[in-house]
Amino acid sequence: MASILAQKPKKTKLKELKTLGQQLLSSRAHINNLPLLLTFISPSSPPQHVLESLLSLQSFFTTVLPDLPPSSSLTKRRRLDDSTKEDPEFIYRTWLRSKFDEFITLLIQVLLSPDTEEALRELVLDSFMEFVKLGNGGRFYSAIYHKLLRGIVHSGIPVEFLSELLASNYFKYIDIRYFTFISMEKLVKALDIKDIPDEKTVGEDGESGSQSRESVELSIHKLHYIISHIPPPEGIDEKFEYEMWSGSGLSSKEEHDQKELSKLQKAEDKDRKTEKRNTDVLSPATIAKKMKLKFTKAWISFLRLPMPVNIYKEVLATLHQTVIPYLSNPIILCDFLTRSYDIGGVISVMALSSLFILVTQHGLEYPNFYEKLYALLSPSIFMAKHKAKFFQLLDSCLKSPLLPAYLAAAFAKKLSRLSVSVPPSGALVIIALIHNLLRRHPSINCLVHKEDGDGTPKDNSKDEDTVTKADDSGSCTEISHKRSGIDHFNNEESNPIKSNAMRSSLWEIDTLRHHYCPPVSR
How far apart are CA 443 and CA 151, in angstroms? Predict the structure, then answer.
């Protein structure tokens, strides 16, 4: 045996490694095999050696872990109780606890290493999650799970495969989702954004600041990937059977978050209570209620981060579908969305969907909403990726019969002016939008039949003050063809109140009858 221990791990044969594991499991007399087996849990070790050591160590720690003292209380207990320092059994268990903590750290290193084969990484993750499942006296071991997530987020290299494994195999369990939301909130708060140097304070080499920024951006990418792949909270239904990863459920003794859960626990059915061995185990209904709160806290914390532009756009594109419906109080997003809406350009367009939901469904008062919406109407909007959704929302925003006439006129005139400078597809959309505006707001029909201040009519027809829409292949608004002397509309004015739209007419629509594109001219 001494000869085996004297050999270097790289020279140890697989058969000898298996013998070490069998001896460790057979008797405490071979406990010195434990440190030797730990040396093989390394990204540099052959995959077969890692797997063999992992199997032996997992079997060993699974049996002894319930009797080990908690990691968090080891130092405190050793300081307060001098008699326990001399207790051989306590010293032995303390040593085993330290080796288990080392084992967990080594497993995370293997998981995060780019040199680890994908098949081995999947097996290591399964073993790690088994300790998460049973390592805390049969309850969810949130401490080591948080340690894994922290390693993923702060790893200096991309670890998409590991994140995908976690999301696809484990996020279906409600307790894993719950603790993932808790960890996301903690990791976001621990990400010290203030210490990142700006470009103006970078050192002479010019690298330290950029590396710090790149590191934080990479962490934000990983945080976004994880939090966006967690299924949203389901509706609260006591009859629904929630799938739990930890067989005993959640304990309220692990940390403060679980304590909050136990305080909010309501009276359950007597039959269900008698089946539980631990009074701290939470009901699925309570978990579902707290899930919504943790979901909200995690997302609100994440949205405070200085996100890269690509992540910012991804968040805004899906916020109204994947986040807002599941928040405990969606109105808390008003600051984030109004800031995004004020940025202008594509960001404002993408923020419009979520902001519109807050205004129409949650009572958000945003005085400058229509002014900002008016400012978004420019030729570039017809080239935007999300232009279809934007025009759909624009039509919805202008649908209300309570919309003042000057606002409806300003939007109609602005769209009319854009129709002469946008592609044919854009002109068709504008014709439809103006048609809807005139139909919903009869008070602006004067824009179709308009007379100058000196009494000169702008339209020779008496019955051309209504708008008719043609077939699906193209639509045209019949407007007078007689030109006016002066157009009082100020196209450069960003404030619709000052645009003088009510003093103008929709003469641009008349020019579309001579458009080169047949669907537009018809």
Answer: 63
